[in-house]
Amino acid sequence: GRVDPDQEMIDIRMNPIKHKILVISGKGGVGKSTVGCMLAQVLASQSCKVGVVDLDICGPSIPKLLSVEEQVVVNTEYGWKTLLSPHNGIKVMSVGAMLKSDRDSVVFRGPRKTGLIKRFFKDTFWGKLDYLICDTPPGTSDEHLTAIKVLKNVKPDGAIIVTTSQGVSIATVRREVNFCRKMGVKILGLVVNMSTFMCPCCDEVTNIFPEDEIEKLSEEQKIPILARIPIDTRVTACCEVGRNPVIEHPDSQAIKCMEQLVKSL
Ligand code: ADP
């Protein structure tokens, strides 16, 4: 067939990146971005070269989580220069860095959004990376379709589905599973976030939601549960201000769970 020069450039940019992982969720607020960033931080703390591309054009939360809010994207002869997170040198690309203030909203619609996402892959100078973590907006929309399409030639490793074990979240997980299967994206597994709460003073563990439904789904669909991550107030406190929970609270349950998850990748 005809060669698409954009696609050729994307392939050139993506080929030196060993692993590409999509982080998806059916609903917002389940901790998808937090889990994606913790994953990036754990990998980076183990000496991997890591990039995070924020495909949430309308609600970017990565710049804050990775503490690159003050930085702006500049164009160089090699392409768009990535933002550099102080957390183990994670490279970041996000539309958040292209807005003048966080009160600016992005009113990009369909084609412009698609165009920008393409450029994140085509024009960003990522260089050699071990992992590129792709954070996506909740649900399944243009952003996902575009990312999957542009990564087709370089075969992403697959998707991690982040959810809580509430009934309403699980219903949307089924939709994500069907979407991935339809699009030919491998599902690496589920991450059940905020699954328990550990009391900071006595370490007593309390379950938050019953987990039989998510376990049933996992069995039925033959999708492993990669991790169950407790609610961890130390993690939240760090993330809220853009500090690195992996460095500050390496012995916290949430980070230990993320380290287990990384081993299973
Ligand atoms: P999403 O990307 O799914 O919309 P976020 O990652 O923004 O969700 O997380 C929503 C909120 O929940 C944030 O305030 C975040 O700090 C908090 N949060 C997420 N996961 C945890 C966790 N395991 N422990 C404590 N707080 C968490």
Q: What brief labels describe this structure?
A:
single chain; 265 residues; alpha/beta; 9-stranded mixed sheet; 3-stranded mixed sheet; 10 helices; 38% helix; binds adenosine-5'-diphosphate; ATP-binding
Structural class: alpha/beta
On the 0-100 scale, what is the average pLDDT?
92
Beta-strand percentage? 15-25%
Could you give the distance between the termini? 35 Å
List of distinct ligands in this structure: adenosine-5'-diphosphate
Pfam family, one: ParA
Organism: Mytilus edulis (Blue mussel)
Keywords: 4Fe-4S, ATP-binding, Iron, Iron-sulfur, Metal-binding, Nucleotide-binding
Protein name: Cytosolic Fe-S cluster assembly factor NUBP1 homolog
Describe what this molecule looks like in 3D.
By secondary structure, this protein is α/β, with parallel strands linked by helices. The protein contains 10 helices and 12 strands. The strands form 2 sheets. Strands 1, 2, 5, 6, 8, 9, 10, 11 and 12 form a 9-stranded mixed sheet that branches. Strands 3-4-7 form a 3-stranded mixed sheet. Strand 9, helix 6 and strand 10 (187-198) form a beta-alpha-beta unit. Bound molecules: adenosine-5'-diphosphate. The site of adenosine-5'-diphosphate has 18 residues, from helix 2, strand 10, strand 12 and helix 8. Pfam families: ParA. It comes from Mytilus edulis. One of its GO terms (molecular function) is metal ion binding.
Summarize the structure.
This protein is α/β, with parallel strands linked by helices. The chain is built from ten helices and twelve strands.
